[in-house]
């Protein structure tokens, strides 16, 4: 029972996965990863079809960036059952590397790659000792890690601009599209880039779930001890999942830095970590579609709720409470179950 | 009032195709009304709401009603940028006020150049107007000017060796850096440089260190919130006699309540908002300061803060520019704004130029001292 120390509703992952990786036939034909990619691509294009202005593209961009970051949480929380409250730290490492690089003559794409590598490396080094913990203890350890990163970003003003943040110079997605002769507004360009990267991220995560490594992760989710007795190197597998999820967060952070053109230490703050986990839990931590739904709701809803600005937090809180009580595994698995039950 | 205004603005989201009718002048604002910077955004939002109401009751601008659309960005740059996009694209505003914090301001700033919409920030940092961005203005004076003003007063008293004790929060850290930067040019020497965490409850060790420094002649405390009040009380407990300076960050009556009698005798640079009745009859700021305080107290039953004053000035500068432009074209408004000369506000007297989008000089700050539990101007 050692591996089941997590507090988050641990779904029977197998059902959940079967429910949304897509239905049997299409999956068998083109593979679950490609299938997921195509579904995401259609959703990205669908958004672009109905968006009337840059403002919608802007919100759409944030949805895709959040989806990407939350997909990392899905790998960690949904697949392995590990809770991290410090992922905003990795997010911020990706963001700040992208911002700092150009100041030292490193081109944006290289700085971005460097930041992602750094986040992965840090996750590898730190992961070894702290992944021995589970449940609350792991949550607190990762929380501490996130706080440390946030403190460095706030205090080292010579490098990071301190609490006021720093400007991100360099790449604009618009220029990428200019290369192929397309003229887009920058809000639209970032939407396509973020949507594309999120689709790739989702496809990779789905493929991972269906690979031997992914099956090992899910075995660990059910029981550490049982997994070990099957010959799975539990420490190694956990560490791998931690690194992968850190990389997802860092890529999302780098994208956000470039799309916004300005970052502050709050991107690495505790609240942002909580927000990411919340999105995953709300949508359903066991699948990438849960990541998308959670990110969509928690990004778009505050925009709709500006009418009730004073009640925004109350409404969000109520949604969370209702989801946790009535749909313990999150929205997507709940709806998928309903659907399956109706069919059978 | 705010909710009604916002409701009008958000209708566009519910009905994708319906473009809002533009029968009036729309002004947008994105402020930190809640969250860690609410002490900035709340009085700013209240001030703007009050001013719009007042303006419309008096017939609006050139006969046209003004609609104010306010969003709460909670000082989150990410949200601020989204709201700025929304104000420009969906609400079709002619100008935007806001960004209570530097981060929010800087995240929004590039949009205004893209869309050619004038923007007046209410945040402090120098980076907002240096280098000058064509469409970005700001009303608060900078911490750099506060340092210069304090140092000018110190040298005027024939002193030069200064010890700094700074908070490590955003405000304290930024001001400390600016003070170090302007020290030499201002003719003072920083001989001690201590810091404290924003929530520390005892700064006696740092003060003892500074007091023990050779030749120390004055102490300056760049900081914000409760920290400076603790420093002030520790200062009195240690019985230090050196001239003691606080920053504009604590220039409020709330600070006097926190620090109590220990504050007696200290000096700080502040806007004339703290001394409405002690301004000279011919002071150009006397009228706006007294008007603002009277109107705010009547509507909200509390004293306005320095931060609300920034919003007051931003709004009046904007209205003045729209009136002079005689048009609601954002570019013409911007041009009129940049041509502003000698506009007396509550923070200072503004004169914008193409090279200066803050428009204040050191005369905007008054050095005040605490005497008999109240503020008194120091004769220069």
TrEMBL record, chain A:
Keywords, alphabetical: Cell membrane, Membrane, Transmembrane, Transmembrane helix
Membrane-related topology note: Multi-pass membrane protein
ATP-binding keyword on record: no
Pfam annotation, one family: BPD_transp_2
Domain of life: Bacteria
Record field: transmembrane: 29-51, 63-86, 106-126, 133-153, 189-209, 241-264, 276-301, 313-336
Compartments where located: Cell membrane
Predominant location: membrane
PANTHER family: BRANCHED AMINO ACID TRANSPORT SYSTEM PERMEASE, HIGH-AFFINITY BRANCHED-CHAIN AMINO ACID TRANSPORT SYSTEM PERMEASE
Annotated protein name in UniProt: Branched-chain amino acid transport system permease protein
Organism field: Limimaricola variabilis
Lineage: Bacteria, Pseudomonadati, Pseudomonadota, Alphaproteobacteria, Rhodobacterales
From TrEMBL, chain B:
Domain of life of the organism encoding this protein: Bacteria
Domain Leucine-binding protein: 24-359
Signal peptide boundaries: 1-23
Transmembrane is among the record's keywords: no
Gene3D superfamilies cross-referenced by the UniProt entry: 3.40.50.2300
Keywords: Amino-acid transport, Signal, Transport
SUPFAM superfamilies with a match to the protein in the record: Periplasmic binding protein-like I (SSF53822)
Keyword NAD: no
Family: Belongs to the leucine-binding protein family.
Name this polypeptide is given: Branched-chain amino acid transport system substrate-binding protein
């Amino acid at each position: 029972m050692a591996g089941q120390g997590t507090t988050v509703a641990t779904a029977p992952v197998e059902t959940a996965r079967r429910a949304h990786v897509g239905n049997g036939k299409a999956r068998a034909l083109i593979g679950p990863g490609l299938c997921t990619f195509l579904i995401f691509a259609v959703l990205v294009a669908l958004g672009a079809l109905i968006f009337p202005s840059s403002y919608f593209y802007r919100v759409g961009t944030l949805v895709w960036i959040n989806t990407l970051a939350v997909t990392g949480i899905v790998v960690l929380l949904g697949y392995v059952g590990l809770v991290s409250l410090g992922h905003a730290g990795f997010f911020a490492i990706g963001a700040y590397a992208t911002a700092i690089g150009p100041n030292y003559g490193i081109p944006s794409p290289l700085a971005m790659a460097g930041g992602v590598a750094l986040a992965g490396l840090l996750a590898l080094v730190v992961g070894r000792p702290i992944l021995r913990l589970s449940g609350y203890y792991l949550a607190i350890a990762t929380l501490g890690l996130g706080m440390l990163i946030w403190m460095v970003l706030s205090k080292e003003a010579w490098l990071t601009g301190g609490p006021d943040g720093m400007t991100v110079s360099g790449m604009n997605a618009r220029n990428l599209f200019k290369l192929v002769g397309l003229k887009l507004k920058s809000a639209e360009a970032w939407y396509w880039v973020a949507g594309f990267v999120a689709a790739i991220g989702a496809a990779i995560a789905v493929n991972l779930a269906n690979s031997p490594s992914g099956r090992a992760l899910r075995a660990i989710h059910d029981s550490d001890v049982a997994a070990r007795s099957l010959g799975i190197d539990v420490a190694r597998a956990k560490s791998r999942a931690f690194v992968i999820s850190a990389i997802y967060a860092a890529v999302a952070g780098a994208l956000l830095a470039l799309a916004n053109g300005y970052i502050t230490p709050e991107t690495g703050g505790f609240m942002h970590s909580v927000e990411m986990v919340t999105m995953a839990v709300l949508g359903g931590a066991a699948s990438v579609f849960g990541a998308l739904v959670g990110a969509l709701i928690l990004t778009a809803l505050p925009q709709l709720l500006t009418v009730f600005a004073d009640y925004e937090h109350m409404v969000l809180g109520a949604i969370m409470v209702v989801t946790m009580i009535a749909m313990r595994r999150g929205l997507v698995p709940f709806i998928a179950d309903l659907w399956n039950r109706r069919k059978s | 009032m705010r909710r009604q205004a916002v409701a009008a603005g958000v209708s566009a989201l519910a009905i994708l195709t319906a473009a809002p009718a533009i029968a009036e002048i729309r002004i947008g604002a994105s402020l930190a009304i809640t969250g860690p910077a609410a002490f900035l955004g709340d009085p700013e939002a209240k001030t703007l709401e009050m001013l719009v109401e007042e303006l419309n009751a008096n017939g609006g601008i050139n006969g046209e009603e003004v609609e104010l659309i306010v969003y709460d960005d909670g000082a989150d740059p990410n949200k601020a940028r989204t709201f700025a996009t929304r104000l420009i694209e969906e609400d079709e505003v002619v100008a935007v006020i806001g960004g209570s914090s530097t981060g929010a301001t800087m995240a929004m700033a590039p949009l205004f150049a893209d869309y050619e919409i004038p923007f007046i920030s209410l945040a402090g940092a120098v980076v907002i107007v240096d280098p000058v961005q064509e469409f970005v203005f700001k009303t608060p004076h900078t911490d750099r000017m506060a340092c210069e003003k304090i140092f000018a007063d110190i040298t005027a008293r024939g002193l030069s060796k200064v010890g700094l004790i700074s908070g490590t929060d955003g405000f304290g850290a930024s001001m400390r850096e600016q003070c170090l930067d302007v020290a030499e040019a201002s003719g003072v020497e920083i001989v001690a440089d201590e810091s404290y965490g924003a929530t520390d409850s005892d700064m006696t060790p740092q003060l003892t260190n500074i007091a023990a420094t050779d030749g120390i002649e004055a102490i300056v405390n760049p900081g914000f919130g409760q920290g400076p009040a603790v420093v002030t009380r520790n200062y009195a407990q240690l019985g230090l006699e050196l001239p003691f300076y606080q920053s504009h960050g604590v220039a409020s009556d709330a600070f006097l309540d926190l620090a109590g009698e220990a504050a007696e005798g200290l000096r700080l640079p502040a806007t004339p908002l703290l001394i409405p009745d002690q301004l000279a009859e011919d002071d150009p700021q006397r009228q706006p300061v007294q008007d603002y305080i009277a109107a705010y107290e009547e509507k909200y039953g509390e004293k306005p803060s320095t931060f609300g004053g920034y919003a007051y000035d931003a709004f009046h500068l904007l209205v003045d520019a729209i009136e002079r432009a005689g048009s609601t074209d954002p570019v013409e408004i911007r041009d009129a704004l940049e041509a502003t000369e000698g506009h007396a506000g509550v923070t200072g007297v503004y004169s914008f130029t193409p090279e200066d989008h803050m428009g204040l000089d050191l005369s905007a700050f008054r050095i005040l001292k605490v005497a008999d539990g109240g503020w008194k101007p120091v004769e220069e």
